[in-house]
Amino acid sequence: xxxxxxxxxxxxxxxxxxxxxxxxxxxxxxxxxxxxxxxxxxxxxxxxxxxxxxxxxxxxxxxxxxxxxxxxxxxxxxxxxxxxxxxxxxxxxxxxxxxxxxxxxxxxxxxxxxxxxxxxxxxxxxxxxxxxxxxxxxxxxxxxxxxxxxxxxxxxxxxxxxxxxxxxxxxxxx
Length: 174
Fold this sequence. Notes:
Blueprint: H1 2-18, H2 21-45, H3 57-73, H4 78-88, H5 93-118, H6 123-146, H7 149-171
């Protein structure tokens, strides 16, 4: 998953540099909606008898590559996408959360290297986003250790729903 995330994040960054953003922004709310629905189904709705069946390793790797490309291109909602795949692959939410954090760092790092090589980095915005990402990562690690797993699952679904609504409002105004 590390190597897949590294390659996918770099590929997404290259894609961003060579395609119009308007094409992808139309898809973003739908992708986050899909990820939230998959996570909700896998974590909250699926029957106990269905929980014995998991996503296979090959399917999880293919999905992780797609998420990594998306992450290198846009990044919004990759945590929910990865949580959906990792929990469907059988990881407990706490393990999936930790794995997601490492893989997100790999995706973002590979994209950053591509963007740095391409030039034109807006450093003021990078500083703001970087500080927020560090704070969010710390808050997420704290929550993973202290919040009840069911409460965490419901919170992730609510956050994904809010993100989906916000993205639809932002990108699909009449």
